[in-house]
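Human: Respectfully, please carefully check these tokens:
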Amino acid sequence: MSREEIRGYVRDRNGNMIYHLVFFKYEGLKGMKGVLEIWELVRRYMEEPDGHIQAYQVDQRLLDLDGKRESFIHSLIQATQVLADSRAFQLIFAPMVMWAGTGRIIAKWTCRVPRWPEWVEEKCRVAPDDPYVRNRHTERPLSAKEVLWPLCCFLLGWVEVLAILYFCFRGYL
């Protein structure tokens, strides 16, 4: 399993980096191939005449971040996506899911809500009748399986970690 990123930098006239942005991240068994698949989707969206239709048809859930913080369950779903290629890995490495989920929850709940600058909002207004809008209001609701599986891995991870700590330190209690 690997974690790959495509990064973007904004430089000033002297070549000094003034902003560092992580554009695309992929964690899983595909490695760089997974990142390049995401990059290809964005490239088609930006360059091809029907790119917006191709992006609309991709069957991937959107993060629920439009003007609010990530929810508890969405944080857990993203934490289990670290091992998205295998449910067996998710069970075996449940403590990692627990640590990743706990860290993600703390990070997301203590950070500010992401907002586009006003000039971006003005320039990129979406028409109310646009048939290709995808946001949290147009997404289908989460299924029980999509909610219960990450929650199960998260709780199992806590149980495993607490059991390990108990057996390691029971002589000291």
About this structure: The chain has two domains: 1-60, 63-173.
